[in-house]
Design a protein that fits this description.
A hairpin with a 2-residue loop joins strand 11 and strand 12. This protein is α+β, with helices and mostly antiparallel strands. The strands form eight sheets. It has a six-stranded mixed β-sheet with strand order 2-3-1-4-5-6, with helices on both faces. Strands 7-8-14-11-10-15 form a six-stranded antiparallel beta barrel. The N and C termini lie far apart (76 Å). Helix content is 31%, strand content 28%. The chain is elongated.
């Protein structure tokens, strides 16, 4: 199915035209039918001669209902722009033209209606004026058809022309994330809450879990049932008019301008960086605006950064991404001020002097389709899920720009990575220059120093900085082998223990050598000594030597037998045996016996 929105001035015959094409009444309200004036959105559908199914969203033409018109045309990819051949181009036509231009709509048909009320020359004159007025829009070259909904003139030609136009519309994405802007919400007895909207991309299925992004909050909802063209469906693809029967929400809690989205797939934002696409320069725009996107109408505050770019702060968060089109209106005059393209859907806070100028410079150079390198460079590091939410990554294995490094789920800008490396390397070197025996910079201190977005990145930064990490500390390569001022004392200790491997020095003897806990820890990291509990210090080779001796004992053996065989004291024997137990080399059988594990 395709969805076409009407556009055109009041009394141009839009609703009459839709009625003639579809055989359905688009005006839903009794007041509309009584007054002959469309007030809110109407819906109808038909099948074209080619078999192509098409739905129409009929919009009001009166200036007082411009907000409703924008809600109807916003999600629609194709427009049927109607001008009455007898009355010609009207003031309201300007607003509808400006909306079409602002939304960047490029596919449509120009319809000169009420041909039975106008002469051929008058029709030609109106068409010429209409072409001139639409010259700055995507409808500049749209085919034009003259019709009369009363006597049927031109209706077959219009159907054929619509077929041709729809055949040129790019196919929408059938898979991927869904964003459905709600245009109606109501209750059906026995079914509950029903909402409607235009599905522009993705597929909806019965049972789907969606996130409702409302005016005040977000909540999960479930699709209880689906309809399209008044028929129940198991699933609906784009582009379609669709009605969703929702579970877990009351109709009163859903309003026009809310959005149903794939959970976790869309960012929500209330601050945007935008580029002017049509209309008034931002330096001439009032600060307080009304922003229209999809079916939403949101008050906003604009801060210009020159004539072409601005920062927009919305009154509420919306699911928006780079490339989305906005319509800006003056809430006082109701007129369309122009269109905007979202460039930055997650702009940084502007806290320090110069932040605004730097951000504005980046904004001016941004690709309107989105820029992965620009997004990563502006933040230093970005989680891959955020890049996907912004629509900047496609497929399971996206290309990585040359200026970006990927560590797990994080995309890091190379200059930022290099800065982290330099800061970390400098901090580690400074610490070890001040105290060669220090174990190094702790991982926690390194995280605090670099302020990484995720501690999981730290191991990669350590590796990239050509540093080493051991026992929760970061140090220079080979630095743990350098004992500096305690080298002589450790050498003396080694000489002693080589002679008597299990005669561990007492604490007083260690103190006399100037070896305290810090010094012994440094020696242990260097692989020069082995520290056991209760202050017992041996050579690293002691456990292997002990195993050779214990293996020659009758199995199992007692602690006393082990002590005597090793020619040592109970103070040394007990911690040493416990160490051997912990390595699985010996096994404690009971309170007094062990055996060698072979």
């Amino acid at each position: 199915m395709h969805v076409i929105a009407t556009a055109g001035h009041v009394d141009s015959g839009k609703s009459t035209l839709v009625r003639a094409l579809t055989g359905m009444e688009p005006d839903r309200w009794e007041e509309e039918r009584r007054r002959g004036l469309t007030i809110d959105l109407g819906y109808a559908w038909t099948t074209l001669p080619s078999g192509q199914e098409v739905a129409f969203v009929d919009v009001p033409g009166h200036e007082r209902f411009l907000g409703n018109m924008l809600a109807g045309i916003g999600p629609a990819p194709v427009v049927c722009f109607v001008v009455a051949a007898d009355e010609g181009w009207q003031a309201q036509s300007n607003d509808h033209r400006d909306a079409v231009a602002a939304l960047g709509i490029e596919f449509g048909v120009v319809v000169l209606s009420r041909a039975d009320w106008a002469s051929g020359s008058r029709t030609a004159e109106v068409l010429s004026r209409t072409r001139t007025e639409l010259a700055g829009t995507g409808l500049r070259d749209a085919p034009a058809v003259t019709v009369s909904a009363v006597d049927g003139t031109g209706l077959d030609e219009l159907r054929a022309t619509l077929d041709g136009v729809l055949g040129r519309v790019p196919a929408p994405a059938l898979t991927g994330r869904v964003r459905l802007w709600v245009d109606r919400s109501f209750t059906i007895t026995g079914s509950g809450t029903v909402v409607t909207g235009t599905l522009a991309a993705g597929t909806l299925s019965q049972g789907d879990r969606l996130e409702l992004i409302g005016h005040d909050s977000s909540r999960p909802v479930t699709v209880r049932g689906l309809q399209s063209r008044d028929a129940a469906c198991a699933s609906v693809g784009p582009v379609s008019r669709v009605a969703l029967n929702l579970r877990d929400v009351a109709a009163a809690d859903v309003r026009r301008g809310d959005a149903l989205v794939t959970p976790g797939a869309w960012p929500t934002t209330a601050v945007l960086g935008i580029r002017r696409t049509t209309g008034v320069a931002y330096t001439e725009v009032p600060e307080q605006l009304t922003v229209h996107v999809g079916t939403a109408s949101v008050p906003a505050r604009l801060r210009p950064f020159g004539a072409e770019h601005a920062r927009l702060v919305l009154d509420r968060s919306l699911p928006l991404v780079p490339g989305d089109r906005l319509v800006l209106r003056d809430p006082g005059s109701r007129s369309v001020l122009g269109g905007a393209l979202v460039l930055d859907a997650d702009p940084p806070a502007l806290r320090r002097r110069g932040d605004g100028a730097r951000w504005a410079k980046r904004l001016a150079g941004m690709d309107p389709k989105g820029d992965v390198l620009g997004e990563v460079s502006s933040r230093g590091a970005v989680h891959v899920d955020q890049l996907r939410k912004l629509g900047l990554l496609a497929g399971p294995d996206p290309d990585v720009p040359s200026g970006v490094r990927v560590f797990g789920d994080w995309w890091v800008h190379r200059p930022v990575l290099e800065a982290w490396q330099q800061r970390l390397h400098a901090a580690v070197r400074d610490l070890q220059d001040r105290d060669p025996l220090d174990p190094g910079l702790s991982m926690g201190a390194a995280q605090d120093l670099l302020k990484l977005p995720d501690g999981k990145i730290l191991a990669d930064v350590v590796q990239e900085a050509a540093l080493e990490q051991d026992g929760g500390h970061i140090h220079l390569p080979g630095s743990q082998d350098i004992l500096g001022p305690i080298e002589t004392a450790i050498a003396a200790l080694e000489d002693r223990l080589r002679t008597e491997a299990f005669r561990a020095p007492e604490s007083a003897e260690l103190a006399a050598l100037g070896l305290g806990a810090k010094e012994l820890a440094a020696a242990e990291r260097a692989g020069r000594v082995l520290r056991l509990r209760d202050g017992v210090v041996l050579l690293p080779s002691a456990p292997a030597l002990a195993m050779r001796t214990l293996a020659r004992l009758h199995q199992p053996f007692t602690t006393s037998e082990a002590r005597q065989a090793l020619n040592t004291t109970r103070r040394v024997a007990v911690p040493l045996l416990e160490y051997l137990d912990s390595r699985g080399w010996t096994e404690r059988l009971d309170a007094g016996h062990r055996k060698v594990v072979r």
